Amino acid sequence: MKRSKLWSYFKKEGDGNVICTICNKRVKTSGNTSNLASHMKHKHPEDCDVDDKSLDKSQRKLTECGGTSSSLSRSGVSVNLQTSDESAKPPETSVDTVEASCSSAVVVFPTTKPATPNTSANTPKIKQAFENVYQYSKGGAKYDRITDAIAYFIAVDNRPFYAVEGKGFQHLIKELAPLYKVPCRETTKAKIDKKYDTLSKFVADKLKNVDYFSLTTDIWTETLTNTGYLGLTVHFLQQNELQSVTIGVFELEESHTGEYIGQQLTGILRSWNIDTEKVMAFVTDSGANMVKAIRETFGAHKHIPCFAQKNLSHKKNFRTE
After folding, report:
1. Where do the record's region annotations for Disordered lie (predicted)?
2. Looking at the chain, which runs of residues are DSSP E strands?
3. Angle at 152 between CA 146 and CA 156, to 5 degrees
4. Distances (CA, A) of 160 to 145, 156, 247, 268
């Protein structure tokens, strides 16, 4: 077997150790030349002419680790292999200890810190989401606008209050405003009553500045319950433009006599602060009770029969003849 050149720098002792002939330091061999080569490499590098081929596998592994920090670059990632400070002194350890030292090397990746979620950028989105929920909740601006629009739809189109609970209407609102919850019929009715109170005050203030009025009135009977209703509309000029306002449709609880109708009309005008002296004309159909109510309450000179009703009456008489 070929003898390693390392033995020319050491002499054996009986206890398994060797003595360096250069510095007289005792080195433990453990049956191989790994510690001998390490001693020469670190303590007497200028006197060592041992090439890498004379080192065994474990010693080359230690040499590759170097006992110090080395840096590798792979795919743009810096890898540092760090071992303990034992590399500063001769490794008086066995092969097993050397392998353990290399395998325990710490791998450090000093790369850029991983990107963290930009919470400041996400905050406005979260805030906006909560703001949208609030806007469509009761008391929010969008909730009030949609509810007002529904009340307007019911009033202007003469729709029943239960229309808001219809399947088709609910589906329509869900498609237009998914976050909006349609109020029930009772809530809608209360909303319209509140709107009426607000608008009636506005109209009453407007009528205060009117000098003269003409009025039209008629009675309508609901056939299902045989209930009569009296409607009254006022007409006036404002800035040379004709204005018409229906100030109410009121249920008649008694027989439709001329006297009772006259009392109801007087009470309605009083509730709106309309002076009867400002009434210039009262247009009604030609029914005997209506004619009597106007002539006895407001004066015969203020009553004007409805031209359409009068014309229709003449046509009926002509056909009868």
Report:
1. 31-95
2. 10-12, 17-20, 26-28, 70-74, 77-82, 106-108, 213-222, 227-238, 241-252, 279-284, 303-305
3. 155
4. 20, 11, 20, 25
β-bridge mates for residue 243, sequence order: 236
What percentage of residues in the chain have a pLDDT greater than 90? 39
* CATH domain 209-320 topology: Nucleotidyltransferase; domain 5 (3.30.420)
- C-alpha 14/C-alpha 39 separation (Å) is 20
The token duo for 61 is: 């592994």
Q: How many of the other CB atoms lie within 10 Å of CB of 34?
A: 26
Q: What is the tens place of the pLDDT at every residue in 12-71?
A: 877 778 888 888 888 887 777 888 788 888 888 877 665 544 444 444 444 444 444 334
DSSP state of 117: P
pTM: 0.50
For residue 84, the one-letter residue type is S
Tokens, residue 147: 């509810």
- Pick from 128, 214, 139, 151: which is nearest to 180 by CA? 139
Domain ranges of the chain: 5-108, 129-199, 209-320
CA dihedral 279, 284, 290, 291 (to 10 degrees): 80
97 token code pair: 């200890």
Q: State the Cα–Cα distance between residues 140 and 179, nearest whole angstrom.
A: 11
pLDDT (tens digit per residue) in 153-209: 999 998 999 999 999 999 999 999 888 999 999 999 999 999 889 889 999 998 988
